Amino acid sequence: MDRADTPAGSGAFPTRDAVVVALRRIHPFDQVPPGLVAKVATQVHWRPCRAGDVLFREGEPVRAVFLLRAGRVKIVTVDDEGREYIMHLLGPGDLFPAVGLFTGGGYPATAEVIQDGAVGVVTREVILNLVREHGDLAMALLMAQEERIRYLQERIRSLVWRDLRTRVLEVLVKHMGDQLTHQEIAALVGAARESVSRVISEFKRQGLVTRDPSGRWRVRTPDGLGGAGAHDGR
């Protein structure tokens, strides 16, 4: 058997091909030629991560990018009064952070694991060297950054123009199948937990949302609000 004895394998994969398959499930490496993915795969260090682990903290120098193979990670910032705001909720297939890779500086927010999983780590130096050699990789990373910027722009529009009820419903629709607490939903919509709890209670009375025994949200959306019909999963 062709064992994955490179740093990319780190004991987590039976073969080098398995490492490449795992990497191609991480966006934007799904948009990169297979040969280049195989080259990147030799530079990835994979390791388990546990709920509560902090992968990096806001303000620390950007030294690496992270590839989420399994589990969930929240990207958060905290204001001067200690209130937490969730910038992103990340799942399998996500690469982060979205900024700082090319320009350096500090991480713009803190990355905390909220569900056990596995993460790949590639140093910033390695990525920059590969980008200098391969235009396809540079283009893929820039496209991924543009997608993240568009997402943030939509978040800003939602916070400015949409009422709390609509913002909460949008979050529940986007994260159907996830185990979000009321506090995490509040941190996503920029509101107090008590206000969010009242809105969710109203949705439950109306039959719009339910929560299964494991804490996963299910939503039946009305016409014109985030889609039609019931939906399970992501």
Helix content: 25-40%
End-to-end Cα distance? 36 Å
Into how many domains do the coordinates divide?
Answer: 2
CATH hierarchy: architecture of the largest domain: Sandwich
Radius of gyration: 19 Å
Fraction of residues in β-strands: 15-25%
Main structural class: alpha+beta
> Which segments are poorly predicted (pLDDT under 50) over 5 or more consecutive residues?
1-11, 224-234
Please, what is the oligomeric state? single chain
CATH topology of the largest domain: Jelly Rolls
The number of E-state strands comes to 9
Mean pLDDT: 83
Spell the H/E element sequence: HHEEEEEEHHHHHEEE
Q: Main beta sheet, described? A: 6 strands, antiparallel
Q: CATH superfamily membership of the largest domain, which one? A: Jelly Rolls
Overall outline: globular
What is the highest CATH level, the class of the largest domain?
Mainly Beta
What is the overall number of helices? 7
